[in-house]
Amino acid sequence: MSADSPHAAGPPGRAPPLQGAALGLLTLAIAFSTFMEVLDITIVNVSVPAIAGSLGVSPDEGTWAISSYSLASAIMQPLTGWLARRFGEVRTFVVSVSLFVVFSMLCGFATSMPMLVTFRLLQGMVSGPMVPLSMTLLLSNYPDAKKGLALALWAMTVVIAPIFGPVLGGYITDNYSWPWIFFINVPVGLGASLVTFMLLRRRESATVRQPIDGVGLGLLVIGVGCLQFMLDNGNNKDWFASPLILTLAIVAAVALTFLVAWELTDRHPVVDLTLFRHRNFATGTVALAIGMFGFFGINVVYPLWLQTTIGYTAEWAGFATAPVGILAFLLSPLIGRNIQRLELRAVASFAFVVFAFTAFWFARFTVDASFNDLILPRLIQGIGIACFFIPINQIILSGLKPHEIASASGLSNFFRTIAGSVSTAVTVTLWSHRADYHHAVLAEHVNNANAGAVSYLDKLHALGAPTLPGYAIVDSVVTQQALTLAVNDVFWLFGWMFLMMIPLVWLAKPPFGNAGAASAH
């Protein structure tokens, strides 16, 4: 059936949905571009030491390659709706992907850290609309009966890409060189933008020449920029003990407060906050943000614990993390195809139960856990991914009109991104503080009154370790156990948080319908 078949009618004022090979090609193009963009958030993480060494800076300075990208992307995501209304959804997406390719190449050719940070900032800026508009374009070009499948495919790429980022980044850095983590974007991005343009160039959304809200844009840049910079650097600067972090927090709070007040009263807001008047959008976005907080926190602290405490390399930590994508990959299309038959609140609640169960499972691990022990709960956790992200995004978009999807997707993805940044900062800080606590408690028992400690030191002496080196070995063992007990505390906390999330999901109100198809009914 052709793309413009009369048997594939769409909502009034919209082109009919694509069918057959055209729909398959569009899905692949958008999936690859989305995967590429989300992958770039995490693929750089494991390459920071190599990048820093190559460009002659410290590893701390090397992390600017990460924070500059996430800062610019976070600022641009809420602007997706305004950009789509002003320039068109297809044009904005294709230009974003094309510029992403250009700045990826420039990142690979960078010869100094200031050059790399500048190009990463620009790369993050053009990446902001890509993920929200990928959802919008899929929903607007899929038949109503398959919109659940479109949402499933989108959620699958967005969730799985960050998991494979460290594995791919570690492999490329170890076997080739760090610029190739950027160069691999070139063929993928060029192919995706070309296919998308060829298929959708005559399917552009309506545009509106509305003025830019300069005040709102300024408040957004200042507020989100200060917030993201604070989250990226707070742990290294001891948080609010640092005058810089305290100042950033105050400026972010003031700017974002004024932003909300301004956007709710301006005639042409740059961020459409009136979407929160929709009960399902508000409930779903809050659930997505809090759920992402817990899920991302686990994905941050788990590989860190494996590398810093258990002795895994970055590549093997990635292998231990990756199994979470297997069942998510297999189950997502199944849930998407049957989304109209499911009670979405029950499916999301089941996801939180799975997340909690696996978090409690993680909380029981010791330093002696084998690789097989570690990957089994990660495999099961994939069930929760498929059962969470697809229903929650369907709830978020339910009841919205097609022209609101771009703004809603941009805003919900913004909260998803910020939740991930907050989770990273909070989780790493909490793990560090709990490790200090457990180290102090365990160290109290290393004395002559403790028979176990005396016996252990005697064995070290018998093996030829003098007193001071013996105590150094004991301290390393205590540190290893403290870090493990601390990571267990974090997993217990996230487990209970997931369970407490269940009542929130039930605040959503059915029917949830087909995402983006409200005007067709």
Offer a concise description of the structure:
Helix content is 74%, strand content 0%. It is mainly α.
How would you describe what is shown here?
It is a single chain. Helix content is 74%, strand content 0%. By secondary structure, it is mainly alpha-helical. The protein has 3 domains: 206 residues, MFS general substrate transporter like domains (Growth Hormone, Chain: A), CATH 1.20.1250.20; 57 residues; 247 residues, MFS general substrate transporter like domains (Growth Hormone, Chain: A), CATH 1.20.1250.20. The longest helix has 39 residues. The two termini are 24 Å apart. The N terminus is likely disordered.
Poorly predicted residue ranges: 1-12
User: Ends: how far apart?
Assistant: 24 Å
As a whole number of angstroms, the C-alpha radius of gyration is 24 Å
N-to-C series of helices and strands? HHHHHHHHHHHHHHHHHHHHH
Q: How many separate domains?
A: 3
Oligomer: single chain
CATH topology of the largest domain: Growth Hormone, Chain: A
Helix/strand-derived category reads: mainly alpha
Q: What is the helix content?
A: over 70%
Assigned CATH superfamily of the largest domain:
MFS general substrate transporter like domains
CATH class of the largest domain: Mainly Alpha
H/I helix tally: 21
Largest sheet: none
Tally the beta strands: 0
Instruction: Supply the CATH architecture of the largest domain.
Output: Up-down Bundle
